[in-house]
Amino acid sequence: MEYIREININEAVLHILDTNSDEPILNEFKLDLDEDVYRFLLRHTERCLKDEELKYALFNDERNIVKEVAQEYLNGHGDIIDVSKEIARQLFTLMKSNSNIPSCDLVVVSISTEFGPLLGIFKMDYIKNFTHSVDFIDEKIGIRILPEYSGLPSSSSKIQKCAFIKPLRADQEFNLMVIDKQNKDSNYFINNYLGCRLIDNERDKTRNLIKAVEDWTRSNLDGNADKAETVRSAVKDKILSEETVNVGELSESLFGDKQLEKESFNEFISSKGVAGSIEIDREWVDKKLKRVRLKIDNEIDLYLAHETYSDRNRFEIQRIGDGSINIVIKHVQNYIEK
After folding, report:
1. Tell me: the pLDDT tens digits for 79-91?
2. What is the overall mean pLDDT for the chain?
3. At a CB cut-off of 8 Å and minimum separation 6, what does 252 contact?
4. SS3 3
5. 3-state secondary structure string across 60-104
6. Domain co-membership, 166 together with 293
7. Contact indicator for 41, 107 with CB cutoff of 8 Å
8. Which residue in 148, 147, 145, 141 sits closest to 133, CA to CA?
9. Is residue 240 part of a domain?
10. In this structure, what are the phi and psi dihedrals at residue 307, rounded to the nearest 5 degrees?
């Protein structure tokens, strides 16, 4: 997966898409990228590009206005004000046809990265803030709290819908990156607005493999902590040590000649869309598996570094033989209560 670290904001435009109006309010000027505005846009860009719900996507073959005007700009043939206006109009048309789509500010941003230019589109839904209202009633002051929907997401908040569009090139693995968190039953942002289809990247496939194995283990080895620990540790060791993991070979190494367990595992994993050889996203794995969290009998929580979990001088799994295990923390020199 392309983990983008070098981000520069070149220029940006903001438009107001209020569904209570008949027309969008389209900006005729670029945003003044002073220190505060630049930091605001940069932090949202960084957070979105690091978001685990960021997906790769390919544009569909059908004609799509957003794709076309974005490509004009990315290839140096358009002005960001004109391009962003058309991008805003397309979304506003969809919003007016669907009363469930909330009003927003739409920010279109030109971005430079170490992987090339991107055109960012951020749908910034208004957040609910509260303000006070001062009234004079019979010469007395009355103060009320009133809700208002006018604020933009803070730089520490997560954007619910955005896209980063790349210049289209031959044999490209993906054309854009998308976040679409809201309204899972409505795919207007991906299907209708962007006209694209999601594809799994290395991070998605790695995460899906780990989740599928954990789901199978919970469903089939509940009450047998010994076998469950064996499966979890074997899978984790393989993911941490190998660049690719073949699901068939993984099943064989886990269960050997235990045909029923092997078939159950293979069918379950396949039903979750995990099959063949999975290229491991090393950066994601190193980040996600560096700590181990254990929930023990719904009463005890343990958090420990993976190195500690694997160090038999510090931590040990003792197998009793009846399906249960002892978990031993060794050589404790200091502890505190929280």
Report:
1. 999 999 999 999 9
2. 91
3. 262
4. coil
5. CCCCCHHHHHHHHHHCCCCCHHHHHHHHHHHHHHHHHHCCCCCCE
6. no
7. yes
8. 145
9. yes
10. -60, -40
